[in-house]
Amino acid sequence: xxxxxxxxxxxxxRRRHFVALIWVALLTLAGAGAAGAPAAGNSxxxxxxxxxxKAFDLLEQRFPGASADGATARVVFKAxxxxxxxxxxxxxxVQETVRELSDGSEVVRVTDPxxxxxxxxxxxxxxxxxxxxxxxxxxxxxSRDALEDSAQDARKAGLTVEIGGDALQTVPHTGTTEIIGxxxxxxxxxxxxxxxxxxxxxxxxxxxxVGIGVSTITALASALDLGSTTSTxxxxxxxxxxxxxxxxxxxxxxxxxxxxxDREEAAGRAVGTAGSAxxxxxxxxxxxxxxxxxxxxxxxxxxxxxxxxTVAVAVLIALTxxxxxxxxAGRRVKPVGEKGRLFGRSRKQERPAKPNLGTRWASxxxxxxxAVLLLGVLGLGAAAVPAASLELGLPDDGAQPTxxxxxxxxxxxxxxxxxxxxxPLMVVVDxxxxxxxxxxxxxxxxxxxxxxDVVTVTPPAPNKAGDTATITVIPDSKPSSVATEDLVxxxxxxxxxxxxxxxxxxxxxxxxxxxxxxxxxxxxxLIPYLVLVVGLAFLLxxxxxxxxxxxxKAALGFLLSVMAALGAVVAVFQWGWLADLMGVEQTGPVMxxxxxxxxxxxxxxxxxxxxxxxxxxxxxxVHGEKAGQAxxxxxxYGARVVTAAAVIMMAVFAGFIGSSESMVKMIGFGLAIxxxxxxxxxxxxxxxAVLALLGRKAWWLPKWLDRALPNVxxxxxxxxxDTDREDQDREPARA
Length: 735
What we know:
The longest helix has about 35 residues, at about 510-545. Helix content is about 65%, strand content about 5%. By secondary structure, it is α+β, with helices and mostly antiparallel strands.
């Protein structure tokens, strides 16, 4: 592989005009496709195989035209202090609002609070439910404007009016902190390279890669049902890995220049050595992201595949566009040890430099491996303690900022009708195979009324054929509570008995039941996902490092860092520690998708640092250094670059903490803290400590396995052998 990539690097350097033209053309093509594509909305959410999804599909069959997947809005009214919603003036205002809302072209129906008995017992709160023909993201602006205008008219009459539901949902924004993250990355690159030109190359190529990836996602969003969150996460991951991959190749290029090689040769060798590490690091990230498909949740699969595509583009750009741009930059990219104009005159250092910080740190770890290992493991273990209290759920309007009308409507409904009113359960009774459907409907309602934590059970509402009915159940507890989850399981337990007696199917659906099913499905999929992803990556790393213990140590270190990161997420988003600093207005259960998504992404990124840092050690060991000295050598050449890469990733991920989307905010924080733990505790401390304790055994591989494995030559041994032969061929000529 090193030889192939070496040739690719030299060709890209030599044919830089052609390479640059190809990438500019791809960016233009993707941008044109995105410009002509409809805006992405929220991806349709389905969970194949779950009871909630089966019930939803049954509703579409048995209640045609009911727009089960259409947007809804709850217009919540609260009377002024000392008044009631049943007062004539307030009642007239509400009924006028209902009439105005009914005139919308996309409106299916609007319920009158007084006819639907949607007035609280104390008479202070009422609500009207608006159902639309299309989903929230497909609503025309005129429909949203009409909804808000009607609410504003009622406010002018003296009522407090707020709007809940998904009719007002918008595409989330990330805020200015994303720009700050990129700015921090730029500063780190300038400090690392000491040159604006060298620092600009990774930023430029990362932006091109993200531009191509996100534009392609945008262009295909409507056809493939890709949600708005998909492009945000692809941007987050694509920026981070794109900058890092380019950073490693540019750093190796400068090191090759410092050894006296000409620029084309240095570019070829940089791609042949550091590029090999980039390929395998990228493969681990792609495996982790594509592996999300094992969960069998379409939205999560699409997010993973889209982000993996952006990572693949970042790898290709690093291998081809970086050497091409290095050809354009010429002498403006200096060798290692030669200062550019930004930090001094363009000259080489006259005195030998003292050992850098990476060398001194690695030497200390090699001398004190047990102390460093214990301190690192105990520190991560302490950070992981909150993970034992992890609670999973999916957000509703109760997780919105208090400044939003959706959150205020949620609070008003809880105040007027109880906390469970915001999470109603829909029970679907399929009595098609029953002899007496009406009796079954009544029996189901009576059975549910006898359960704990039930406030209200509406009368059965059958379809036109009379073989299927819906029953709405209002729990006594809030949607994300354990009591509500227990109620869902209790209803399903009753349904099993009814099925045995009457051949009728009782299914529980609704947003709350859907959230419960998602959490359970994700929990069930976590272990198989870990086995698949870690197993595949373990085999890949055996090929890369030609060792058994090094990949095993890499996997165990990853588990430490991801558990510590989950503990930090629980502490902030569930317990509320530093919540104000992170802009978390409402604490609660951690997003159901967070653990498995973070496991996938963090595993890929953790293997990035493992590959970049340990391949330098492996390279030194293969070239004849002792095991302990190889660790120091790896840190001398790799620690500065890995540190810069980690700081850049942390800055990019932390930039997404300012997002208005709670899932993006949580993932941004989780990935940023996970990179900190993995790069600075696991890879910089635990890894060298373990390798120092193992010594030569770290690189042990059974002979039969050594013969069976393909030789990918990540260390560039083939390139060194070629150079030695060339030097020998030139010796007679010199003589």
